[in-house]
Design goal:
The chain is of the alpha+beta class. The protein is built from 4 helices and 7 strands, in the order H-E-E-E-E-H-E-E-H-H-E. The chain has a 7-stranded antiparallel beta sheet, with helices on both faces. Pfam families: PNPOx_N (PF01243).
């Protein structure tokens, strides 16, 4: 899918996004996550027992969005299909480590510890994009 410039820019610049899955009771469950673009997809790593994993396995349609700017603009919502991939290695994903190595250290985690904890990769494939209202001119 070709993303609008605003969405592509936010994917390149942002460090976090909100991943919203659906619980067994049908409630939305937003969770802030680290991500990296990979081809047409977004990649997120997770612990295998995280609630979002069970939610996605039951219902793979999810949304991902960024915070709006202080005036309520710059809204980007991606409607995605999520795929769960188990038994993966964070340490083998150089782009992810380049972006989040310092974040892992701030959490008191080494790359080796992260590799043991985050053994599930979520592959989010955007299917539709919604952009909020643009800022008024001038």
């Amino acid at each position: 899918m070709d993303l609008p410039e605003q969405a592509a820019r936010r994917l390149a610049e942002e460090r976090f996004l909100w991943l919203t899955t659906i619980t067994a009771s049908g409630a939305p469950a937003p969770t802030p996550v680290w991500f990296v673009p990979q081809g047409a997809d977004l990649v997120v790593y997770s612990e295998p027992n995280a609630r979002k994993i069970a939610n996605i396995e039951r219902q793979p349609l999810v949304s991902a969005h960024f915070n709006a700017d202080p005036e309520g603009h710059e809204i980007v919502v991606l409607h995605c299909r999520a795929q769960v991939e188990r038994g993966v290695s964070v340490a083998a994903h150089t782009e992810y480590l380049a972006k989040y190595r310092e974040g892992l250290a701030a959490l008191g985690q080494t790359v080796e510890q992260a590799d043991q904890l985050y053994t599930v990769r979520l592959r989010l494939t955007p299917r539709r994009v919604w952009l909020g209202p643009e800022a008024p001119a001038g």
